[in-house]
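Following up on my earlier thread - several people asked me to post the actual chain instead of describing it. Fair enough. Here it is, all 274 residues.
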Amino acid sequence: MLKYQIEVIMVENKKIYSSLNGKNALILGGSRGIGKAISIRLAQEGCNVLINYARSKDAATETAATCKSYGVEAKIVQGDIGKESSVKEIYKQINGNNLDILINNAARGLERPRPAIDQKPKHLHSTMDVNLFGPWHAIQHAFPLMKEKGGGVIINLLSPGSEHYMPNYSAVGISKAALSSLTMYMSVELAPYGIRVNGISAGWVEGSDGEHSYRKEVSERVKPFVPIGRNVSPEDIASAAAWMCSDESSMLVGHVLHIDGGFNHGAWNAILDN
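Reply from S.P.:
Thanks for posting it. Predicted structure:
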C-alpha cells in the first residue's frame, strides 16, 4: 500500500527522473515562456533553481514562487547576459559555486526584423552579444564549477532559423547558427570532464514570450504544416530539457534535439512571407 501511495505522489508531482533530485540549475532567461516552463519542470523534478531575468522581475518572482511550491530552493537574479560583467555577477549568486545544470535560453533579435541584406550592424552586434557571446561567457563560467563536481549538463536553446531560411529572421538566424556551432565545439571539448553539452531547436512555439511569438497571428497558418496537428508548447520543450538533464540521456553529447511535431521547414518561407 505504501509503495502504491509513493507512486501516485510521484506521478502527480511529475517526478520522473530521480537523478535530478537535489541538483542545482541556472536558467538564463528563465522568467517567462520557454524559460519559465523549464524552470518549473526542473523544480518539479527536485532541482533547486536560480532564475535569471533581464527586465521582468514580477514574472521572475511569480515563476520562483511556483518553483518553491515543489519544495525546492528558488531564487531570482537580474542580469543582461549580453554583458560579460553581468554574467559574472549572476554567477556570484550561485550558492557555494554549486552548479549542475546550465540552461542558455535568454535571446534577443526580433525587435527589428529585416532581410540580411538590410540588417544594421549595430542591431546584429547587439543580437550576437545576447544570443552567442552571452551563452559563451556563461559556459566559460560554468566550466570550472562543473569540472570540480566531475560533470554537468549544458543546454543551449537554438532556432530553426539557424538551419533553414526564414524571412526577416536574419539577426536571430545568424546568431543561433553561431550558437549551434558553439554547441558542437563545446560538446567535444567538455565531454572528457563529464560535462554534456546539447541543444534544443523548436518549431513554432505557442504561448511563449520568446523569439517565436513575435507574430502571434502566424500560429494558425503554421498548424496545417505540423503533421502532429498542433504547435509546440513551452511545456513540450521543458519535458525534453528535463530528460536531457537527467542520467537517462547520459550518452547524449553534441546533439540538437528538434521539437517541431514533424514541421515542414520548407514552409517557413510561404508562411512568414504572407
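Confidence is low (pLDDT under 50) at residues 1-12, 210-214. That should answer part of your original question.
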